[in-house]
Amino acid sequence: MGIRVDWRSSCSLTGTVLKWLAVPLAVPLVLAVFDGDGPLAFVAAIVATVVVGIALERLSDDRDLGQREAFLMVALTWFGVAAIGSIPFALVGLGAPSASAFSTSVGGLVNAAFESTSGLTTTGATVMSGWDFENQSRAILLWRQLIQWLGGLGILIVAIGLLSNLMVGGAQLMETETQTRNVRKLRPHLDETARLIWGLYVGLTALAAGTFYALHLLGAAPNMDLFNAVSHALTSVATAGFSPEPESVGAFEPIVQWAVMPFMILGATNFVLLYYITQGDIRQPLQSEEFRFYVGVLVSLSALIAAILWIDPATDGTLEQTVRHGLFNVVSLVTTTGYASTDFGLWPAGATYLLFFSMFIGGMAGSTTCSIKSLRWLVTLKAFRRNLFTSIHPEAVRPLRLGNTVVDEETIRDIYAYVLLAIVIFFLLTVFVVVDAARASTAVTEFEAIGASASIFLNIGPAFGQFGPMDNYAGFSTATRTVMIVMMWIGRIEIIPVLVLLTPAFWKS
Amino acid sequence: MGIRVDWRSSCSLTGTVLKWLAVPLAVPLVLAVFDGDGPLAFVAAIVATVVVGIALERLSDDRDLGQREAFLMVALTWFGVAAIGSIPFALVGLGAPSASAFSTSVGGLVNAAFESTSGLTTTGATVMSGWDFENQSRAILLWRQLIQWLGGLGILIVAIGLLSNLMVGGAQLMETETQTRNVRKLRPHLDETARLIWGLYVGLTALAAGTFYALHLLGAAPNMDLFNAVSHALTSVATAGFSPEPESVGAFEPIVQWAVMPFMILGATNFVLLYYITQGDIRQPLQSEEFRFYVGVLVSLSALIAAILWIDPATDGTLEQTVRHGLFNVVSLVTTTGYASTDFGLWPAGATYLLFFSMFIGGMAGSTTCSIKSLRWLVTLKAFRRNLFTSIHPEAVRPLRLGNTVVDEETIRDIYAYVLLAIVIFFLLTVFVVVDAARASTAVTEFEAIGASASIFLNIGPAFGQFGPMDNYAGFSTATRTVMIVMMWIGRIEIIPVLVLLTPAFWKS
Ligand SMILES: [K+]
Ligand SMILES: [K+]
């Protein structure tokens, strides 16, 4: 058991991250100056992050983290960056007109924290009203996009890099599936792994921005200007979902919607597989059971939804429209991006519900995706099948295989526990949401509460009814929005790093 | 691995059960004759069950069942009794007016199977319209009640008696918790265990009927005549929920509602604990962690709902009414009975949703309760807590205790698997229900589909909206009602005995 948790080391590493947060914060600062908007909000955030960062960094020289220190560092970093990231939103609320979501009232400050946390956790649920979308500066809108991109990068580094062994079950299997260990042998140093991920992530983002802007230059997408192209590149590769457009990707031409889909799909693909693809090795993805599962889910759910839309008498549309809307919104929710090509809240209940169902699946482990993830579901389903066998042959020993490797029993148990824990916490969140709505006399239906809770905790973004993709979360009480901030944070860093902080055993020797 | 499954033995034992089904079928037959109603429906069912029963019984002399034969026998018995039990409902449909749920159309025959399966599985979801409640004979209404009581008895025998080791995780733990092994030592023979359960079950039913009828004789419950007293005794102790009254227990005086509650609570209490109580040993229930969990859930959920009803401006009521309705409906849904004291579909979303949440919990293992059951949740929650500990101390070995006993790791994994499997199947059922509603152009909202699916698969009974406690399931398409019949069957016999029949390994050597 050993010694007390070395919280100083955790804080120190978090401090380093916060110090470097000044660099991305400089981007909207430059845009604010360029656009002639007030730069104060970003200057303040930069000063705060450098001061807090350096102060924390000085707490310790020891950068070697144990298991507990790593949990603490992950939890602290997501908390710290979200807190600093909310400063620009809080400051635009100074003297803002009452139509703005951001103000200096308690509710307004909670909104600033909500928007920042929703950004960093790549959730993409917004509290911004139509007024905000029209009247906030481009700098603020860009900061929303940028913090999502940073959140995606952060989770990639945690999932594949240094801390991979902390992610329940997933990491060990991801290595198995993709032979990451071989990658590691090739590139044994953490720095190199991080650089590899960073290169892929930046390259994919640049490719997305280039593709979107090319459509504009070719005249196929008049309103996809450079700002929009970059903004959507940042949040599609990060499977994050914020858009500077109040109507999300629905504001753009069909060809743009088709162009966005591959980047959401790639953003939710294991980055180690993407690395193999860039090396010209196409057999790796084809051999990956998880990849086939992920693609199979996308195809079958979109086909089902397209069929429902096609036969629904109240939903008009050409075949192209029906297929596109079915595919786009399934891709968006399975990858946990949360863009919308149309207001799916208006769809018939069957189609809406399938989208809700899609939320729980998630893309591949080792990507920017959120939710439960295909890998965990794949192992769960295989373990179910095996359970049926062993219930009639209790004496049989039947190892569970993924690809060529045997999954060990503890990993299976931990994956069961993780999936179940996620569903139980989602359930408890729904209970809080409906009970608090009753307390605050907010009119929230049961399915709105269920949809919003899933969307928040699984880091999707939009939900249904009054919390649909063309609407926002400002309708929830301040208490509910505060709890949702916490739940986005817990969901994004995969529950355990936060929950363990609540156990006495974490802090005692 | 051994030999092929000995399906003849399974069929033979099922045959014996079917043969004896003639005895309870004689009860409504006598009532039909007494009331001057046509006895044909029951005569036909008796002839069918005796013929089929004896034919099946002759298939084998070997009454020693292995694991697989026991699974098959349980699945067959519930199927066979439900099929025979539907004959009276099907036959009253001969020449029935179009207002009746039962007719000789496909939909009408499905309704007969639905009502019978819903009865035997102690679900209590009905397809009977207001017309049926007013116009069906007392004999038919009594058969509905009686088949529920038989279903409760059957599940008790499976859960505590011969087949206890087949129920995933639950049985081993139930023995642990309640020291059933000691009971067995005292009474080593299966026959004695069955007789013990039978005695308790009959005694409890008689006590319930006596209590309800006493209220009538004392003038406190004018419409609780002998027929109603017996009818409600049969389905409260079986936590089953059918009522000959279209308004369920809401049709009776408040004092009746108070009187019904203890019998639902006792019906969902482990019968081994009840045995100890009859022996004057009150320490056993107080020491049982599961019992305390079960009572804690009942108290906290009812308090929460009562508070919501109390502060809701749209819901009027005295303090007694508020407390009674909160407690009654929570007790009804946690025990999986499915009675209603009022139309909770009219309640605010917060209260309705908490009732939905209540459905997933269930009463104690070793009782007539359905759903997931308190014991499994208790182990799951304890295992979650331990997981947090081991995720920071991976090297630590920390056995999970229930009472004074260590729960073994395989049991924990199997319980995780069971709870997750139940939730996944529930989810898949919701998908079927909404997709089929879209196909059939039935107007079913998302939450109605979710509520009805939970209620059917967890064997509760009523759901919400148009499938609320004062309504019925006739609004679903024939396809959906057919799938629901299958799901009630799967849910009641705890999933595994049915699913294993679908694996090739079950039928091969
Ligand atoms: K998202
Ligand atoms: K029931």
From TrEMBL, chains A, B:
<feature type="transmembrane region" description="Helical">
    <location>
        <begin position="71"/>
        <end position="96"/>
    </location>
</feature>
<dbReference type="InterPro" id="IPR004772">
    <property type="entry name" value="TrkH"/>
</dbReference>
<comment type="similarity">
    <text>Belongs to the TrkH potassium transport family.</text>
</comment>
<dbReference type="InterPro" id="IPR003445">
    <property type="entry name" value="Cat_transpt"/>
</dbReference>
<dbReference type="GO" id="GO:0015379">
    <property type="term" value="F:potassium:chloride symporter activity"/>
</dbReference>
<feature type="transmembrane region" description="Helical">
    <location>
        <begin position="255"/>
        <end position="277"/>
    </location>
</feature>
<feature type="transmembrane region" description="Helical">
    <location>
        <begin position="12"/>
        <end position="34"/>
    </location>
</feature>
<protein>
    <submittedName>
        <fullName>Trk system potassium uptake protein TrkH</fullName>
    </submittedName>
</protein>
<feature type="transmembrane region" description="Helical">
    <location>
        <begin position="485"/>
        <end position="507"/>
    </location>
</feature>
<keyword id="KW-0406">Ion transport</keyword>
<feature type="transmembrane region" description="Helical">
    <location>
        <begin position="40"/>
        <end position="59"/>
    </location>
</feature>
<keyword id="KW-0812">Transmembrane</keyword>
<keyword id="KW-0630">Potassium</keyword>
<feature type="transmembrane region" description="Helical">
    <location>
        <begin position="195"/>
        <end position="215"/>
    </location>
</feature>
<dbReference type="Pfam" id="PF02386">
    <property type="entry name" value="TrkH"/>
</dbReference>
<keyword id="KW-0472">Membrane</keyword>
<keyword id="KW-1003">Cell membrane</keyword>
<feature type="transmembrane region" description="Helical">
    <location>
        <begin position="353"/>
        <end position="375"/>
    </location>
</feature>
<keyword id="KW-0997">Cell inner membrane</keyword>
<dbReference type="GO" id="GO:0005886">
    <property type="term" value="C:plasma membrane"/>
</dbReference>
<keyword id="KW-0633">Potassium transport</keyword>
<feature type="transmembrane region" description="Helical">
    <location>
        <begin position="415"/>
        <end position="435"/>
    </location>
</feature>
<feature type="transmembrane region" description="Helical">
    <location>
        <begin position="146"/>
        <end position="174"/>
    </location>
</feature>
<keyword id="KW-0813">Transport</keyword>
<keyword id="KW-1133">Transmembrane helix</keyword>
<feature type="transmembrane region" description="Helical">
    <location>
        <begin position="293"/>
        <end position="311"/>
    </location>
</feature>
